[in-house]
Amino acid sequence: MEISKGRGFFNNSIGDKQTAFLMNEAAAEKYGIKEVEGIRIKSASTQEVKEGDLIGIVKNFHMKSLHHPIDPIVLTVSPESYYIDNFVVRLETTNLAQTIKNFSEKWAQVAPDRPFEYFFLDEAFAELYRKEARMGQLFSYFTILALFIACLGMFALAAFMSERRTKEIGIRKVLGANVSNIVTLLSKDFVKLVLVSVIFAFPIAWWAMNRWLQDFAYRIDIQWWMFVLAGVAAVGVALLTVSFQAIRAAVANPVESLRSE
Q: Are 247 and 173 within one domain?
């Protein structure tokens, strides 16, 4: 935690344990506190009543997932052991099983009446967004499947169109058309279809993404360049798909296609 005003708790300070308080910026904003000097705080719980001075304001930090806004928080230190629910330990992971075993044995000596339970913070953080991770994975699978099916369809349609226009391509080549002209001729119809599809898809995608982002108190804004990039990618995939058939038709010998004419 970063201190924005005042100071943090001093280690092994009896005074800080008994009479000191910190609050986050959200709490300071809620109560209209600009400076820490002269602010008295009184807290009450089922175990004790504590009164003291505000010594500092910490920058806002997340205690929940990004679905939730940052709540006003007041922090204090209690000398009583009944407030201790968790220990946060930074450890090496080279021999994790043995390290956990050592913790378990030490815990049994210090607190034999309480079971030893542990979890890893990275797994706890990942659990906050488990639903989004699964949804993202599911969308990735369906996107790959949709692209594969669409590319198969475009490839078959390109083969069909190039077959139907074989004689036209032969005549154009005899009249001086080069490979790039033929490829452009066969590809532009597919590009038009892709551009029409993205025009219809972009408003739906923008609406759906904004509806989904409403579940997050902290979120990005959908920018126009994201849709432009998606459109360019869609056109690129279409061109790559039909280019094989287009180039194949463009380099074919026109004599073969015009032999029966």
A: yes
Please say whether the beta carbons of 75 and 22 come within 8 A: yes
The model carries a pTM of 0.66
Task: Find residue 56's DSSP bridge partners.
Answer: 6, 22
pLDDT tens, residue by residue, 162-205: 777 777 777 777 777 787 887 888 888 888 888 999 999 999 99
Range of the domain at 227: 130-258
* Contact of 256 with 108, CB cutoff 8 Å: no
Note whether 243 and 137 are same-domain residues: yes
- Residue 210 CB contacts under 8 Å (≥ 6 apart), including other chains: 222
Residue 3 sits at φ, ψ, to 5 deg, of -85, 125
Split at pLDDT 50, 70, 90, the class of 137 is: very high
* pLDDT tops 60 at residue 46: no
Locate tokens 């033929």: which residue?
Answer: 182
Strands 20-24 and 3-6, by their bridges, are unpaired
Separation of alpha carbons 35 and 30, rounded Å: 13
Q: How many residues does the chain have?
A: 261
94 with 203, same domain?
no
Nearest CA-CA partner of 43 in 76, 12, 71: 76
Q: Is 52 helix (H, G, I), strand (E, B) or coil?
A: strand
Per the DSSP assignment, residues forming a β-bridge with 51 are: 42
Contact 43, 74 (CB under 8 A): yes
Q: How far does CA 5 lie from the centroid of its chain?
A: 32
Strand partners, 49: 44
